[in-house]
């Protein structure tokens, strides 16, 4: 059985199609990432899978339960960590867990055992009797994840799990997510707009753009598909296509604000010819770098856009506020 099976799932808001007939499967125990720019349809997709939004058409099963015909079955099988900050600040971590366990009618003894085990898993045992209001952002997120696992879900949904956290805390959180997927054999489906997060954590990634899945594979295969090397050229003159770059050895070129990239098989062999061509076209070159394709290059290739982490970082607070208000 697949942990998640999605078939032509569609969500329209009025005339606007936010999710456009997407189909994909997720295997049991997999960490699957939905990667996409703002507004691509990531949150809408997982909201439908978590039965928080009903689809306009298409179907999906989560842990063998139909999201439209068996909402209860789905809800019992999933854990959800969305950006809604639903912890009670005036309670301790332990009390937050206990309260959640009661909602799911988990017997007292089992509740206590699992709370102990999960707080240990996310590294909060020592702080379990402190009020949540004294916790840092990363600790809160870890507690939310522990809480989402209390009723032993088969599938865990994480909506931008490290949004707004500093790099070190994000690294810690990745370790925890990795560990719980291995130790608890849980299927994780997460959304992110961080390339490094998707690359580091996910077994497979679906790149979603304008409501459609434009590529789906392992991070390694996605990168391999782009060819051997990528040359990135920074140029203040660059705008749009550059003529004269229609060479047989160039596999693909992409451009964005002041940069363009050239994907090719052997950068060493062709670099000087490329530079010469640009100089002949009187294009100013500020810097040149040669590297193996990154997920950033893959993303640019499929969406025509780039997400630089610093840009994303600057937008995080706005986006978090927006998301909190929405959910
Ligand atoms: N309730 C709603 N009513 C109308 N439009 C909506 C609603 N929810 C989402 N949308 C629109 O659907 C599109 C997809 O939104 P969604 O939140 O799924 O994107 P996302 O990929 O999660 O983006 P982000 O990373 O910015 O959260 C956006 O254009 C958004 O404005």
From TrEMBL:
Alphabetic keyword roster: ATP-binding, Cell membrane, Membrane, Nucleotide-binding, Translocase, Transport
Organism the protein comes from: Methanoplanus endosymbiosus
Sequence ranges assigned to domain ABC transporter in this UniProt record: 4-235
Keyword presence, RNA-binding: no
One Gene Ontology cellular component annotation held by this UniProt entry: plasma membrane
Protein name: ATP-binding cassette domain-containing protein
Bilayer topology term: Peripheral membrane protein
GO BP, one annotated term: doxorubicin transport
Superkingdom as given in the UniProt entry: Archaea
Pfam families: ABC_tran (PF00005), DrrA1-3_C (PF13732)
Primary site of residence: membrane
């Amino acid at each position: 059985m697949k942990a998640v099976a999605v078939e032509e799932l569609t969500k329209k808001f009025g005339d606007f199609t936010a999710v456009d007939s997407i189909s994909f499967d997720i295997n049991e125990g997999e960490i699957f990432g939905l990667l996409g720019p703002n507004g691509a349809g990531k949150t809408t997709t997982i909201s439908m899978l978590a039965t928080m939004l009903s689809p306009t058409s298409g179907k999906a099963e989560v842990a063998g339960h139909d999201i439209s015909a068996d909402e209860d079955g789905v809800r019992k099988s999933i854990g959800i960590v969305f950006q809604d900050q639903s912890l009670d600040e005036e309670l301790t971590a332990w009390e937050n867990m206990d309260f959640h366990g009661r909602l799911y009618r988990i017997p007292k003894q089992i509740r206590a055992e699992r709370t102990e085990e999960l707080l240990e898993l996310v590294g909060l045992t020592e702080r379990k009797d402190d009020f949540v209001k004294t916790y840092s952002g990363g600790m809160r997120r870890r507690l939310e994840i522990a809480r989402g696992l209390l009723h032993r879900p088969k599938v865990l949904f994480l909506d931008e799990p490290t949004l707004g956290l500093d790099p070190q805390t994000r690294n810690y959180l990745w370790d925890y997510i990795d560990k719980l997927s291995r130790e608890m054999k849980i299927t994780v489906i997460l959304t992110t707009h961080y390339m490094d997060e998707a690359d580091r954590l996910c077994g497979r990634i679906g790149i979603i753009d304008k409501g459609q899945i434009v590529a789906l594979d392992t991070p390694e295969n996605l990168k391999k598909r782009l060819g051997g090397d990528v040359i990135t050229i920074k140029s203040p003159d660059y705008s749009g296509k550059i003529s004269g770059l229609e060479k047989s050895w160039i596999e693909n070129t992409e451009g964005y604000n002041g940069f363009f990239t050239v994907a090719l098989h052997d950068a060493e062999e062709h670099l000087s010819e490329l530079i010469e061509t640009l100089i002949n076209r009187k294009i100013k070159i500020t810097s040149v770098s040669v590297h193996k394709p990154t997920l950033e290059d893959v993303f640019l290739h499929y969406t025509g856009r780039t997400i630089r982490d610093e840009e994303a970082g600057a937008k995080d607070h706005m986006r978090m506020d927006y998301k909190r208000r929405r959910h």
